[in-house]
Automatic annotation (TrEMBL), chain A:
<dbReference type="InterPro" id="IPR003593">
    <property type="entry name" value="AAA+_ATPase"/>
</dbReference>
<dbReference type="InterPro" id="IPR013563">
    <property type="entry name" value="Oligopep_ABC_C"/>
</dbReference>
<protein>
    <submittedName>
        <fullName>ATP-binding cassette domain-containing protein</fullName>
    </submittedName>
</protein>
<dbReference type="GO" id="GO:0015833">
    <property type="term" value="P:peptide transport"/>
</dbReference>
<keyword id="KW-0472">Membrane</keyword>
<dbReference type="InterPro" id="IPR027417">
    <property type="entry name" value="P-loop_NTPase"/>
</dbReference>
<dbReference type="GO" id="GO:0005524">
    <property type="term" value="F:ATP binding"/>
</dbReference>
<feature type="domain" description="ABC transporter">
    <location>
        <begin position="2"/>
        <end position="247"/>
    </location>
</feature>
<dbReference type="GO" id="GO:0005886">
    <property type="term" value="C:plasma membrane"/>
</dbReference>
<comment type="similarity">
    <text>Belongs to the ABC transporter superfamily.</text>
</comment>
<keyword id="KW-1003">Cell membrane</keyword>
<dbReference type="InterPro" id="IPR003439">
    <property type="entry name" value="ABC_transporter-like_ATP-bd"/>
</dbReference>
<keyword id="KW-0067">ATP-binding</keyword>
<dbReference type="InterPro" id="IPR050388">
    <property type="entry name" value="ABC_Ni/Peptide_Import"/>
</dbReference>
<dbReference type="Pfam" id="PF00005">
    <property type="entry name" value="ABC_tran"/>
</dbReference>
<dbReference type="InterPro" id="IPR017871">
    <property type="entry name" value="ABC_transporter-like_CS"/>
</dbReference>
<dbReference type="GO" id="GO:0055085">
    <property type="term" value="P:transmembrane transport"/>
</dbReference>
């Protein structure tokens, strides 16, 4: 369905932020994109949306949806050309809704564009019901400041669904929410994915929620996908030392030790990414050949691959 | 909503009372006996006694204030010493010119400042934006009287398109055609303020364009012009509307200069002449009227702000 092939995003006349990212998403499937903050997850999603900030541009690779290339099209151009649609739920529910427009208007204007035959108010109410906002008819006339963070994020999901997307991107949709609200919103996304058959790109820096949300995982480091796998194999036998490091940082439910492990060092800034493996400076397994040249693609079973000279699982084959 | 209006109106009235005390005290802050200051040294004792009596200067201060404020409430601002007519009449004579000048000036400010600011923001970084922003910077930094003199030089003295001074009432011969007398003065008065509004509109459009909710609007796939009008402009105007109150205050003091440069028979010129003539009742009356206008305009700005921004109600 969605196919991202060797996507490169760069600052205008500057360093690459994404350095050849490839993945695919099928209808009804959730792909989790995991990585530390600053690794390029949000830029990946904005590139797929056709909404990169003016300072950045796609300088290589393609994005196609249902066989149609949409790489350089902004959302309104995609509507005009009637191609497939990608919709997005943003990280920050408190600032992502227009403060001076009623909820109903903000959903309604998306309905008008993507569902010209529907009555905007009726469809908006239907969408609010769909994202389980209680008393939907009444909330249509509310302003964003009258809603809680969790409710606003549901409204954001309703707006995204109003676009009738084939692909829904959720960029750390629950980072700004309380834990209980977080669980409800995650459940909602999982449920909508199953019910509507949309493909979901679920972005998070928290491996902990990946297991309950996604079928497949892609791990991003410094603008590069370092490992891709189904959820089970990834947690059982990660190939890349970075993935293993992220897992070591997860709180252990068996232990009372509140101190979490961390990966020593910090991710390189865009523009200062070293030659060879970007993770080498922080990697305990790194050797001299990690510091220059291309990285081999190693496999650890069906659909499981990583870019590493020294993968953790011996069975991995180049 | 009702409570908001009440609270705002109450605040405006409190400000007016405070301002009226300051305005009233003004006559007593003049060094020396105000009566001699007004009449000059050659005044006869009868004249002094008559004026003292008319101004009520023999009463206790609090009493004097109450009498003055009470009459003002009933529309009586006292007598002009120079004209020997009611102050309200002196003000009324200048009112037509000043009100028309203010209305036409505000029209230029809104009609040029806001759309051109939008244009500069939409074309940010292009030569259009740089040209417009440079022009705005220039206009905002030159004094009104200088713009006025230049306009007179070019369009009145040079090209002869507009008259350079005076303003016959629109109720006299010529009717509305007499408004051409106000074109150059209103342009001079509007120039720096329109430039400020232009820069403010541009800056706040660019600020709002970076907001997350504008990205959300774009993500919906609605046409770009709708993103600009409905999401960016609507929010950017919040800052611009609240600036109109301040613009009005700037207009008042600049109007005094402009009316003098163009020899317009307006309230501004009346103030200047009354100061020179030491016609204190007129000065007090005009200032009181200006304060009232200022408060009313700011009240209207506040209330319209409430309609534009639903969040105000809770604050
Ligand atoms: N507007 C921008 N201009 C220049 N660089 C940017 C901009 N936005 C983000 N970046 C850079 O792009 C990289 C990836 O950022 P981002 O995709 O937001 O990371 P993540 O979402 O994974 O935390 C970061 O190194 C950041 O410094
Ligand atoms: Mg991010």
């Amino acid at each position: 369905m969605l196919n991202v092939d060797n996507l490169v995003v760069s600052l205008r006349n500057g360093p690459q932020i994404l350095r050849g990212v490839s993945f695919g998403i099928e209808p009804g499937e959730i792909l989790a994109l995991v990585g530390e903050s600053g690794s390029g997850k949000s830029m990946t999603s904005l590139a797929l949306m056709g909404l990169l900030p003016p300072a950045l541009a796609i300088t290589g690779g393609t994005v196609s949806l249902g066989g149609t290339e949409i790489t350089h099209l902004a959302p309104h151009q995609r509507v005009r050309r009637n191609c497939g649609k990608v919709a997005m739920v943003f990280q920050e529910p408190m600032t992502s809704l227009n403060p001076v427009l009623r909820i109903g208007e903000q959903i309604g204007e998306a309905v008008r564009v993507h569902d010209p035959d529907a009555v905007p108010a009726d469809r908006a109410k239907e969408l609010l019901d769909m994202v389980r906002i209680p008393d939907a008819a009444h909330q249509l006339s509310a302003y964003p400041h009258e809603l809680s963070g969790g409710m606003r994020q549901r409204v954001m999901i309703a707006i995204a669904l109003a676009c009738r997307p084939q692909i829904l991107i959720a960029d750390e949709p629950t980072t700004a929410l309380d834990v209980t609200v977080q669980r409800q919103v995650l459940g909602l996304i999982r449920d909508l994915c199953d019910r509507l058959g949309v493909g979901v790109l679920f972005i998070t820096h928290d491996l902990g929620v990946v297991a309950q949300m996604a079928e497949r995982v892609a791990v991003m480091y410094a603008g590069m996908l370092v490992e891709r796998a189904d959820v089970g194999p990834l947690f059982r036998a990660p190939l890349h030392p970075y993935t293993a490091g992220l897992m070591a940082c997860l709180p252990d439910p068996e232990s009372d030790d509140p101190l979490l492990a961390t990966i020593p060092g910090a991710a390189p800034r865009a523009g200062a990414v070293p030659d060879g493996c970007p993770f080498a400076p922080r990697c305990v397994r790194a050797a001299s050949r990690c510091r220059s040249g291309a990285l081999p693609l190693v496999h650890g079973g069906e659909g499981h691959s990583a870019r590493c000279h020294f993968p953790l699982t011996a069975a991995a084959s180049a | 909503m009702g409570r908001y209006v009440l609270r705002r109106t109450g605040a405006a009235i409190a400000t007016l009372i405070a301002a009226s005390i300051v305005i009233f005290a003004f006559i007593h802050l003049i060094p020396g006996d105000p009566v001699y200051v007004m009449l000059g040294d050659g005044a006869t004792p009868e004249q002094v006694a008559r004026l003292r009596n008319r101004l009520g200067l023999d009463e206790p201060l609090v009493f004097q204030y109450l009498i003055w404020a009470g009459s003002a409430l009933q529309g009586d601002l006292g007598q002009s010493i120079f004209f020997e007519t009611p102050v309200t009449q002196v003000i009324a004579e200048g009112a037509e010119t000043s009100i028309l000048l203010a209305v036409i000036t505000m029209f230029w400010i809104v009609a040029f400042g806001v759309p051109v600011g939008i244009l500069a923001a939409i074309r940010q970084g292009t030569w259009i934006d740089q040209g417009l922003s440079g022009l705005a910077m220039l206009l905002a930094s030159v004094p009104t009287f200088w713009v006025g003199l230049y306009l007179i030089l070019i369009f009145a003295a040079g090209l002869g398109w507009f008259p350079s001074s005076g303003f016959p009432s629109v109720f006299d011969d010529g009717g509305l055609y007499n408004l051409r007398y106000l074109i150059l003065p209103s342009l001079a008065l509007a120039a720096p303020n329109a430039a400020l509004i232009l820069r403010l509109t541009r800056a706040s459009m660019l600020d709002v364009a970076r907001e997350d909710y504008v990205r959300t609007a774009r993500a919906k796939g609605i046409p770009p012009y709708r993103v600009v009008l409905r999401h960016i402009l609507r929010n950017a105007l919040l800052a611009v509307v609240s600036a109109f109150g301040f613009t009005f205050a700037a207009l008042i003091s600049e109007a005094v200069v402009t009316e003098t440069v163009f020899a317009l028979p307006g309230i501004g010129r009346t103030v200047v002449q009354s100061i020179l003539r030491r016609d204190y009742p007129v000065i007090q009356g005009v200032i009181l009227v200006i304060v009232c206008l200022y408060l009313i305009i700011n009240l209207l700005v506040d209330l319209s702000y409430r309609f534009l921004d639903p969040r105000v109600e809770l604050e």
